[in-house]
Amino acid sequence: MSYKLKVIGLLELEAFQKLYKQNWPKYCPEYYCLDNFIEFLKADPQIKNLKLFTLEGEQARYDALFVVVDRYQIFVGSLNNTNGLTRQALDLLDWSFGFKCSSIPSRHIEALDNVVRSKELNLEFRDATDLFYMKAEDALMLKVEPPAGFIFKSLSEADAPLINEEWPNHHLGSLYFIQRQIRMCVNAGLYTEETQELVAWCIRLQGGYLGALQVKDCHKRRGFGSLVTREISHRLATQGHDVMALVGPSNKPSAGMFSKLGFRIIDQCVWLRTKPTIGEFTWPDGE
């Protein structure tokens, strides 16, 4: 059988998203991934370098199969991980420039690995993470006041260069990514009240996860990472969102913090980046 990718838009994404409410929270990664991209499209219908696909045919629609290509990142979801359609969809993408396969749920990892092997793609990294999860009603209980001399505020795009520089995962093209996430998603920053210095922060990634959680070196070991995690979690919960975060198994301090706050592990996800096959590609500024 010959398979073809089909471009989809806002209405299809909204229809797919509703299907991912079943067996909650099993499919919450797919649900919140679509939630973010739906909001992106509503805010900016002409957003650059964002492509949304499914496969042609009734089965893919029934499975709510989607592949999101967001600049150099891909996100994938399906209610069915046994019929081979997820692999077919991934196989039809153009992998020439390399992809960062982001927060891929465990049920889709076999399909992704098979595509990597069949195309003989070389990897820059392949990292497993644990999915920490908290229900919105529990996250509402995380509200906390900042310590004396500090205030919570939403981040501004002017904060993006600092956040990008301090982010251990920063890379070519990540500054624009952080600017966009600050502009379009829930976030939280802890600032000194007197000088307005940003000392700790957390943003929300496209997949719906908490990300880029960081504390300036000179302010570490004061519990500020936990404070901004509580603040952004509460902000998400007030919008009715459950809260998710991905933590590498070797990152014991972060895993301990999320566990102490009441998060529980419900799944594993993989981050994987393939190397370009036709030379490096540099993303234009502002895209």
TrEMBL record:
Molecular function terms from GO: acyltransferase activity, transferring groups other than amino-acyl groups
InterPro entries the record matches: Acyl-CoA_N-acyltransferase, Acyl_CoA_acyltransferase, GCN5-like_dom, GNAT_dom
Gene3D superfamilies (UniProt xref): 3.40.630.30
Domain N-acetyltransferase: 150-284
SUPFAM superfamilies in the cross-refs: Acyl-CoA N-acyltransferases (Nat)
Name this protein carries in UniProt: Uncharacterized protein isoform X1
UniProt source species: Drosophila pseudoobscura pseudoobscura (Fruit fly)
